[in-house]
Amino acid sequence: MTQSSKQAYDYDLIVIGAGSGGVRAARISAAHGAKVAVVEESRPGGTCVIRGCVPKKLLVYGAAFANEFEDAAGFGWDITGATHDWSKLIAAKDVEIDRLEGIYRTLLRNAGANLIEGKGVITGAHEVSVNGKSYSAERILIAVGGWPYLPDIPGLAEHAITSNEVLDLKERPNRMLIQGGGYIALEFASLLNALGTEVHLVYRADMPLRGFDEDVRAHVTKAMADRGVHMHAHAQIASIANEGAEKIVTLQDGTELRVDVVMGATGRKPKIDGLGLEDVGVALAPGGAVKVNDASQSSVASIYAVGDVTDRINLTPVAIGEGHALADTLYGNKPRIMSHDTIASAVFSTPQIATVGLGEAEAAERAEITVFESRFRAMRNTLSGRQEQTYMKLIVNKTSDKVMGVHMVGPDAAEIMQGIAIAVKMGATKADFDAVVGIHPTAAEEFVTMRTPRAD
Asked: In this predicted structure, what is the pLDDT of residue 395?
């Protein structure tokens, strides 16, 4: 950055969006000496902190006690009379989100970044307008994330809520229909079911979680059904209507379901409406994602994008990694590219799902593989009486012995997979797994004791 460029603009970098990726980019850029502004039209913290993974996980924790109470009887506990107050859970969640928003504001302030509150509109390659006032910058970073969308189904937009609104429901619905087969749909179906809501999960495919390993999909579908979630496969909503306080949902096969709340969880789209991208020549993918190269640079050289708005891998840690790499590259004299290979992920359904690497079908397209798997009833379930099984799977390259994919469905799957992900990222082989002495008795030790390949 030359001295003349510093004098020519109000800021070195303007970030639009104060979510995880934008805030990380702003903080690191400012720490490297850049003059930074962050524009946010809502609350600092973004999707993850304000209306996504953090509040959702707090609700997941709250719902988990219901499962613990149910299992406790087998261990001698009498939990008679235990009740749940939804409003108290929501109030406690709100207090925590307010606290985290304050932390995000403090992080920006301590880093020396200027927070500008209002909707940012890109009006030029180096110009952003907020509340009618223009600000110039040598570079602009788009980090606005995604937003839930509802398909064009009669009555859906009028009568359904999304994952945004479900977090603020004043009362827990007694009956709820969730449309969608993605991770958001499964997570809310699981937690509401555990708290006592009659949940109907409606999805178009034969199983939920398209894109996940097929055995994982089959296992979690059965497990959720066994826990009481009504699974409606190959189903679509034809229409929704009101009858008093009820929502009458008619499926395309004629099935009629009466519920209190309908939630659309059919996906998210980049939140680019009104941002002005097309007016300044920023190229977009058909779904509205900002097209970027490996360095997160758009078709306009001075404009960059990170996080869900690029629709690469829509996970908070990925957005953070992209933002950090960009800041180091532009202002830290440490050019680097964020790697999108071998990224672990989890679904906080009940039971939990965690995965790293490739699913079986994708791995088989790349190499000749050997599959190891284990299905077992966890020790705690022997006394609780719960029949649910844990599922684990290793996919191994038959030639190189390298572990290509690891998958798990069961309690603590996410915590277990974080450690496994390190090994897979480092290129561990099946022999490396075999050489590890397991911690006994744990579920995790199954990953290092699988010796016999699956018989196909």
From this structure: 98
* Residue 280 is assigned to a structural domain of this protein: yes
**Would you give the distance in Å from CA 123 to the centre of its chain?**
31
In a domain, 318, yes or no: yes
State the DSSP string of 69-123.
HHHHGGGT---TT----HHHHHHHHHHHHHHHHHHHHHHHHHHTPEEEES-EEEE
- What is d(CA 77, CA 89) in angstroms, rounded to the nearest whole number? 24
Beta bridge partners of 413: none
Q: Do residues 179 and 130 both lie within one domain?
A: no
* 344 conformational bin, left if phi > 0, alpha if psi -120 to 50, beta if neither: beta
pLDDT given for residue 120 in this prediction:
98
Domain around 398? 351-448
Q: Which of 126, 232, 234, 440 is catalytic?
A: 440
Q: For residue 96, give the nearest of 51, 55, 45, 40 by alpha carbon.
A: 55
* 3-state SS record for 229-246: CEEECCCCEEEEEEECCE
Give the CATH number for residue 397. 3.30.390.30
Split into its structural domains, the chain has a count of 3
Does 440 participate in catalysis according to the annotation? yes
Q: Are 402 and 396 in contact (CB under 8 A)?
A: yes
pTM, to two decimals: 0.95
| Structural domain contains residue 340 | no
Do 278 and 262 sit in the same domain of this protein?
no
Tokens for 80, please give them: 């008679």
Residue 32 lies in a domain: yes
Edge-to-edge strand list for the sheet holding 256-259: 237-243, 246-251, 256-259
- Whether residues 111 and 21 share a domain: the answer is yes
Quote the pLDDT of residue 456: 77
The residues of the chain scoring below 70 in pLDDT are 1-7
CATH number at residue 327: 3.50.50.60
